[in-house]
């Protein structure tokens, strides 16, 4: 049983939280990048159709 004041638990919990937020952030970044490229492709198509 790990006691509350054990110093080993804090880095473990912190690294777990960090890795969780890191994956969430990367996931959001990936989605925004995909949306961005899709958006710019749509604009390019619209501009090409106009000329």
Total count of strands: 0
Compute the gyration radius: what is it?
22 Å
Spatial gap, N to C terminus: 72 Å
- Put simply, the count of helices is 1
Taking all residues together, what is the mean pLDDT? 79
Tertiary shape: rod-shaped
**Percentage of residues in strands:** under 5%
Describe this structure in words.
The structure is a single chain. The protein is mostly helical and 51 residues long. It contains 1 helix and no strands. The model has no long low-confidence stretch (mean pLDDT 79).
How is the topology of this model organized?
Layout: H1 9-50
Question: What is the gist of this entry?
Answer:
By secondary structure, the protein is an all-alpha fold. It contains 1 helix and no strands.
Characteristic terms for this protein:
1 helix; 82% helix; mainly alpha; 0% strand; 51 residues
């Amino acid at each position: 049983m790990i006691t509350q004041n054990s110093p080993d638990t804090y880095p473990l919990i912190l690294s777990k939280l960090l890795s969780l937020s890191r994956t969430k952030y990367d996931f959001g970044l990936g989605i925004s990048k995909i949306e961005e490229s899709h958006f710019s492709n749509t604009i390019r198509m619209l501009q090409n159709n106009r000329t």
